[in-house]
Amino acid sequence: MNPVDSYLQHLAAERRLSPHTVTAYQRDLAQLTLLTADKPLAELTVTDIRGAIVKLRSHNLSAASVARHLSSWRGFYVFACRRLGYASNPCLGLRPPKAAKALPQVLSPDTCAQLLNGDHSAADDDTLQARDRAMFELFYSSGLRLSELADLDLNDVNLQSGEAQVTGKGRKTRIVPVGQAALNALAAWLKQRQPRDNTAALFLSQRGTRLTPRSIQLRLNRWALQAGLNQHVHPHLLRHAFATHVLQSSGDLRAVQEMLGHASISTTQVYTHLDWQHLAKVYDQAHPRARKKP
Fold it and tell me: What whole-number distance in Å separates Cα of residue 193 and Cα of residue 196?
């Protein structure tokens, strides 16, 4: 087995990363080989890695994308030094270009209500409408990632306790609360659900099989258009909305971190900046001396 395949197997079997994530690592390592003219990975030096970074930047890749590549390469060399006998890690000491941290776009509570309360009976039959409403209420109620919602099975949701067990990044599980609106929508969907071959999947396609993440994305954007929203709406927008609205109401950053399944609270802290933007806007509108009069 070649070094890259050994590393990918380690990511999948030992670190239990998702197939999507493992494929991203594979792509980044293939890019490194291409950028260094097929020079063996064991022979690359700091100069080679630095040159690869320069080439990435010359291709107009964003600073965040370059940082992700370097992180993938560094992870491979850490593994190779520990397990494969590589003499050194040529990525050590190299810093990625700094990227401005972009704030996520967030839907307002009124926009979320417009999306979720809309009547879609004219466009969809009762089964489709019940399924989609349950999915989108659950996104907003519990802040799930797209892959987490798509992977839910029937026994992962407890309507009596109002909780769901979610499998997130790194195959880590967590328990999240489910609000009453989402519970009602789920109960309505379960009455309509018709599985094929006794599949355990919670959300099904019209063929009775597990609904794919791409299908969920397309259905959500369709709902947004039907609700009269003049913007593209993707599942992560509802996750951002959940985090921001809960944080604005509670101020409990740690609780939001736990519900989102963030390993580091620094990831969750981006929502404090969004909350500050909201507070600053309220201040500007309400305080008599917040802005100079023309």
Answer: 10
Amino acid at position 38, single letter: D
Residue labelled with tokens 């736990």: 258
Digit-coded pLDDT (tens) for 251-291: 777 777 788 877 776 666 666 665 555 545 554 665 454 55
The catalytic residues are 145, 169, 236, 239, 262, 271
Contacts of 252 (CB under 8 A, 6+ apart): 246
**Report field, pTM of the whole predicted structure over 0.85:** no
Task: Tell me which fold the domain 109-283 belongs to.
Answer: hpI Integrase; Chain A (1.10.443)
Residue 169 near residue 261, CB atoms below 8 Å:
yes
Please report, for the chain, the start and end positions of each structural domain, with discontinuous segments joined by +.
Answer: 3-83, 109-283
| Residue that the structure tokens 């009069």 belong to | 293
- How is domain 3-83 classified at the CATH fold level? DNA polymerase; domain 1 (1.10.150)
Q: Count of CB atoms within 10 A of residue 164's CB?
A: 25
**Which amino acid type is present at position 101?**
K
pLDDT tens for 96-105 read 877 666 656 7
Nearest CA among 119, 236, 261 for reference residue 176: 261
> Are 228 and 238 spatial neighbours (Cβ–Cβ below 8 Å)?
no
Least confident of 156-165, 237-246, 285-294: 285-294
Integer CA distances (angstroms), 9 to 18, 26, 288, in order: 12, 11, 62
Query: How many alpha carbons fall within 13 Å on the CB side of residue 207?
Result: 5
